TrEMBL record:
Family indicated by similarity: Belongs to the RutC family.
NCBIfam families in UniProt: Rid family detoxifying hydrolase
An example Gene Ontology molecular-function term: deaminase activity
Record-linked InterPro entries: RidA, RutC-like_sf, YjgF/YER057c/UK114
A matching Pfam family: Ribonuc_L-PSP
Gene source species: Hymenobacter busanensis
Entry protein name: RidA family protein
Top-level taxon in the UniProt lineage: Bacteria
Gene Ontology, cellular component aspect: cytosol
Length: 128
């Protein structure tokens, strides 16, 4: 099986040795997205978990779209948060992007630090 690298200038460029996403067969693995503005490369919503969560979800959608997928194709998400006290806000906003469901499988993990000191990072796996 040949892997296809997914790359779009409409989402933040990778800030390390990884791809925005990789398609293997009918599955797309989207790397963790943080609240970076794709054009400026600057953090959106410094210290504002709501603004950061929205930007993260927009970045995920953009990478999925570049691969020909959408949120309806997502089967698994991993959410990493700096402070689990923000879980309620992140959960509500995250859920709003999936509408009435069905919702993907997911875990949410508190971590001590995230890239560029953001408050939230989300990765996903999508299948058609």
């Amino acid at each position: 099986m040949t892997n296809t690298i997914i790359q779009t200038s409409n989402a933040p460029a990778a800030i390390g040795p990884y791809s925005q996403a990789v398609q293997a067969g009918s599955t797309v693995y989207v790397s963790g997205q943080i609240a970076l503005d794709p054009q400026s490369g600057q953090i959106i919503g410094e210290g504002d978990v709501s603004a950061q969560t929205h930007q993260v979800m927009r970045n995920l959608q953009t990478v999925l779209t570049a691969a020909g997928y959408g949120l309806q194709d997502v089967v698994k998400c991993s959410i990493f948060v700096k402070d689990l006290g923000h879980f309620g806000t992140i959960n509500e906003l995250y859920g709003s992007y999936f509408g009435a469901g069905p919702y993907p499988a997911r875990e949410t993990v508190e971590v001590s630090r995230l890239p560029k000191d953001v408050l939230v990072e989300i990765s996903c796996i999508a299948v058609k």
